[in-house]
């Protein structure tokens, strides 16, 4: 039987998050050739460019909910919109990004429909008979388990950003999707957000960054993060931090990576002055390549690093920045 898959294509600051395209790629695999892929776009106003981007990557129908009330995220309102889309599409599977919003909305959605729910999925395998298994990490990434759903019910799945291949852009002749307006009822009681204060704005979202330069207690001060910011900016990456650095007041907790912070899976993770406590490793051990810079040769971070540099980060990081700058300038020239 053909599968219907609905993707909540989450936006951030007016732009589609990359995990929306990754979820769309997973949806196309789950639906197969004969299934249907639907995308839900929630916007406060015009959504033409975002709609076209989703259609270009294989969405069969993009359901657009557009209303000024959607300008600021409110879980009750957004849940009402997603429920309206679910009632309209009647999907077999709903995919969301494992973001702050996705983690909040998915269990509520599962409870509302008495549906199965798997969170933080890093891989999806589709069998020849159409059955699917969903892989998720356990024990801070030390083990993985595969889960599947009993037949007959709806599946609610959140996907960890930066772990699955995004849906490719199709040629003009391969696109056959359409856009449709989605009507929804605003709940009578909901949380009203008066303002949003962005304390770590201006950089790429940590969970979606391909390159993360992270600092620990070894940066010694708030000013100690400046060399790291320069390196991250040069590489087009984001700056992160260990809990120790956040607790010491060197940076905002929005940058914290680890068991009680964010989980990141970049292509390149550069750990500067981070000892490698198990709590921090829980948030970054899934990185493709790990480079550690630490003056202590016995620091635990070297046990998980692909490349290790023993030395003072205030000497090493500027040298790395200068060398990367030289290589990038030579390539562009």
TrEMBL record:
SUPFAM superfamilies named in the record: Adenine nucleotide alpha hydrolases-like (SSF52402), DHS-like NAD/FAD-binding domain (SSF52467)
Keyword Hydrolase: no
Residue intervals of the Electron transfer flavoprotein alpha/beta-subunit N-terminal domain: 5-199
Gene3D superfamilies linked: HUPs, TPP-binding domain
InterPro entries documented for this protein: DHS-like_NAD/FAD-binding_dom, ETF_a/b_N, ETF_a/FixB, ETF_alpha_N, ETF_asu_C, ETF_asu_C_CS, Rossmann-like_a/b/a_fold
Keyword set, alphabetical order: Electron transport, FAD, Flavoprotein, Transport
Family to which the UniProt record says this protein belongs: Belongs to the ETF alpha-subunit/FixB family.
Name used for this protein in its record: Electron transfer flavoprotein subunit alpha/FixB family protein
Organism, scientific name: Paenibacillus thailandensis
